[in-house]
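Predict the structure of DUF47 family protein.
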Amino acid sequence: MVKLSLMPREEKFFDLIEAAAANMVEIAVAFKDLVDDWRDVPDKISKIADLEHAGDSVTHQIIALLHRSFVTPFDREDIALLAHSMDDVTDLIHSSADYMLLYKVGTPGPRVQSLAGLIVTAAREIAAAAPKLRKTATMKKLFEHCIEINRLENLADQEFRAALVELFDEQNMADVIKWREIFEAMESATDRCEDVANVFEGVALKNA
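Done. Here is the predicted structure for DUF47 family protein.
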């Protein structure tokens, strides 16, 4: 009689979650490069789009694996929420870049660059936290990452509010509308990073 092992499937969940987190870092860095160095814009946004599609692929793989698996390393709902929250981050980064191309905006200013930097830092914190899901012994360390991600989200809120104040000093209402939508997408990306942290925290509380 062949003995079936559930471990490969469990390991696959962790591999995919970490792949999604790594892709999130890559797209955040690509977006930061776009706003810091406003050259070759269509090519850079094309790369961001490719990374967003790669993130979609990983998310689909996680959900498909959920449907095939009888046993999961932690709650199914948490795995699904984690996958979708990380996918939301990549989607919002892509949307922010896409709006810039669609609206034909000028060179991004310091507030855009600062918010982009906070997205990169939050994404890297998520990528550093993800491997700690693999073992109960390391899950407690997730709390430290969650605290830092929450701090970064608060800083992003402050930057967003400051950006809006500065934006409404602009005379060109069309530019106000364009940049407000871009800022909202970027700030929402940091909110979704906080959603990821909340899932991490919940998993740690249930299992650590």
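Residues 7-207 form a domain with the Methane Monooxygenase Hydroxylase; Chain G, domain 1 fold (CATH 1.20.58.220).
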